[in-house]
């Protein structure tokens, strides 16, 4: 059996140990005689799986007691609507930082519900920087401030958490949650689609401060109301049970490896060496400002784009998969989430050097 190094931005690699454990437990979970897929979400077996996953996630992220952790469906993209629907509370404006493709999508959705104040905007430099705190133009009447700490497509990451005073800060952490420790108490809401760094697609994690729950827009659909899910322990309806279970295995895997500071150390080392390989070469380039470079998603271009196809097919032959860049950016993109072994990054760097020697 060969496990390739898959650099997909999402759905992305999962730790091999997690998939092996799922295989072992596939037909008979813990002597229950059932697969997790076959369990009632209200049965004691699944309830124990769900509770352990939440407890482990709370532990690795040090989630304070006044936050709910929700296990939802609908992807991060549903949150683009749920956030204004639940947080505007009669106000008519919200602050958004426009730093790339994902924040653009969040902004477009928010505009259906309120006035959007562009409190930061890096479209002028083609989304290759993160705005400084000093450059933010926050509106004192905004219901909340939304930003995207890691822009998965552009490979742009904030090196700091914006200071927003009393105004709740909302973060789309889809592609960075669990990559390093984070001070949850600085946020009103943290949300993430699971398929980048948490588990399989189909699960969305929402970490929300309790005082932000319970005052939604009039006529809000039941399933779009955070209170529905918070009151029911994310079991108002059938949750994505198998995905919840796999995410739980990932949380255990992170704990076994020393938690988020250990993840951070490995992730930083992986990213640093890949950026160094790009910067040390005249053949590869990454356009992002040094203080805004993502640890998770690293786009790079070849000096001669007509070689892109050859680069990709050679990479595939070496078991380096899904390196093609997003269609909006072109070139290559290496997504190196927690589950990408350091060996995968080393193998990519060797291949890049080999390819450059042959073609430069
Ligand atoms: C992938 C991604 C999304 C979209 O997630 P879905 O779960 O597919 O809706 C949103 N924001 C960011 C930052 C992402 O990386």
Please give a structural write-up.
- There is one protein chain.
- The chain is α/β, with parallel strands linked by helices and 360 residues long.
- The chain folds into two domains: 241 residues, 3-Layer(aba) Sandwich (Aspartate Aminotransferase, domain 2); 101 residues, Aspartate Aminotransferase, domain 1 (Alpha-Beta Complex).
- Helix content is 34%, strand content 16%.
- The chain contains nine helices and 14 strands.
- Strand 3, helix 4 and strand 4 form a beta-alpha-beta unit.
- The radius of gyration is 21 Å and the shape is globular.
- The mean pLDDT is 97.
- Bound molecules: pyridoxal-5'-phosphate (PLP).
- The site of pyridoxal-5'-phosphate has 12 residues, from helix 3.
């Amino acid at each position: 059996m060969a496990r390739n190094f898959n650099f997909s931005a999402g759905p992305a690699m999962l730790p091999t140990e997690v998939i092996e454990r799922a295989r072992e437990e596939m037909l008979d979970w813990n002597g229950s005689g059932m697969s997790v897929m076959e369990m009632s979400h209200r049965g004691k077996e699944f309830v124990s799986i769900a509770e352990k996953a939440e407890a482990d996630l709370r532990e690795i992220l040090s989630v304070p007691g006044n936050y709910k952790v929700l296990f939802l469906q609908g992807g991060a993209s549903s949150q683009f609507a749920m956030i204004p629907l639940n947080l505007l509370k009669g106000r008519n404006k919200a602050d958004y930082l426009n730093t790339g493709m994902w924040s653009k999508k969040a902004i477009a959705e928010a505009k259906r519900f309120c006035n959007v104040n562009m409190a930061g905007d890096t479209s002028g430099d083609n989304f290759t920087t993160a705005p400084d705190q000093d450059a933010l133009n926050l509106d004192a009447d905004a219901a909340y401030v939304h930003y995207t700490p890691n822009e998965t497509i552009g490979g742009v990451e904030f090196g700091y958490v914006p200071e927003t005073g009393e105004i709740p800060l909302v973060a789309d952490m889809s592609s960075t949650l669990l990559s390093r420790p984070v001070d949850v108490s600085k946020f009103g809401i943290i949300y993430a689609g699971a398929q980048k760094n948490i588990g399989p697609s189909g699960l969305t994690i929402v970490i929300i401060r309790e005082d932000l729950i319970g005052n939604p827009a009039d006529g809000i659909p039941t399933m779009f109301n955070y209170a529905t899910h918070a009151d029911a322990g994310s079991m108002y309806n059938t949750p994505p049970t198998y995905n919840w279970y796999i995410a739980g295995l990932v949380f255990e895997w992170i704990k076994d490896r020393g938690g988020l500071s250990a993840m951070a150390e490995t992730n930083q080392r992986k990213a640093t060496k890949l950026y160094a390989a790009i910067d040390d070469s005249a053949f590869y380039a990454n356009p992002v400002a040094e203080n805004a470079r993502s640890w998770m998603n690293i786009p790079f271009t070849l000096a001669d784009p007509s070689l892109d196809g050859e680069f990709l097919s050679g990479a595939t032959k070496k078991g380096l998969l899904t390196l093609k860049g997003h269609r909006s950016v072109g070139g290559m993109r290496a997504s190196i989430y927690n589950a990408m072994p350091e060996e995968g990054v080393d193998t990519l760097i060797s291949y890049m050097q080999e390819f450059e020697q042959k073609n430069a």
